[in-house]
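Task: sequence in, structure out. Protein: GDNF/GAS1 domain-containing protein.
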Amino acid sequence: MQVLLHASRDCLIAGDSCSGDETCSPRLRTLRQCVAGNGSMKLGPGARSQCANAISALLSTPLHGCQCRRGMKREKNCLSIYWSLHQSGIHGLNLVENYPYEKIEKGYDFVRLASITADEVGMTTVNRCLDAAKACNVDDVCQRLRTEYVSTCIKSSTKSGLCNRSRCNKALRRFFDRVPPDYTHELLFCPCSDMACSERRRQTIVPSCSYEAEEKPSCLSQMRICKADYVCRSRLAQFQYDCQPDEHSTTGCTQGNYAACLVAYTGLIGSPITPNYMDNSTSNVSPWCSCSASGSLRDQCKEFLDYFTNNACLRNALLTFGNGMDFVATPTQRLQSDPATDRGPQQTTPVFVTTETEPNALSPARPTQDSVKGRLWFDSAESFDTQQNSSQAFAVTSLSVWISVLLGFVLNSGQLIE
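Result:
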């Protein structure tokens, strides 16, 4: 994810270059007034003409076509430069071009992740959810940032008894922006065949702190909050572009790139429209919001919500990842979930049941805060115990070998003396 932008395509560099140019700088200032709240009113009767002229002039500068990188330093500043040019569609000058971030080209390195899990942890891959946690624990960056967001999200204030949601979401964004998807996607999208595993997967982003509330807010209000924030607006634009469904496509996606769709999905985590699994009995996902009070705007609200709950592209991307594949489906390989259960693909390997999951396998009840904390910290503790037990076993085996050698030497010496 930490791919450096080419200097000529970096919006920060392009903005600095424009600000230092006596011809470009005043046009950029004009454009910013055009897109600011009621800014065009300050430009007088000829505002629309001035805005159009400024845009036309800036299209021939490096600002046109510049991009940003998710999680980069000064990301908001970079995005503000991008949207200054691209949100001018509110004046009837629609220049929206996809989204501000570089496009995702690569798929998933399943072989590398399996190698990490098997070689460094010393276990055979039998449960991808548990193996993903172990693989994260042996990677310095993944383990550090995961520990950071978990400790932040489960920590309660001494006064209110509640967690700090803004800090939790900031830590979540750092984790999903800076840790490679080979790790983050295995943690979040690993396939489950029982409710205990599904609940553990649902708790990955600590929903009780990151987004849940007593009542679901309106999806329209959450969408307005999102679009008022440069980062959230950019992540939503990326998601709507890379996960755009197409019923005529063999993949179900307009862009035909499952990896890009899932990267875009994770980019929304930690935002006002954070998506997650809806329960522990299906693989359905949705943001924490409702269209029940949307009134005359219900169709608009439903269209937004359907991007998560009724999106063939996103559903197929999740099912394909759960199958451990990264391919472009043929017409006979169209992925469709079972409408009766929607539990994703059937497991072809035995499920590895631990003492942590077995007692809860048949219980759909929502976990308590203490059990959530236990689940979140279990992986790190188990990984440490596994490594520690391996070391102890090696030490005991080595001692036994040396004792056998020593006894053999003593016995042989006695026979020689006789």
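The chain has two domains: 7-91, 110-379.
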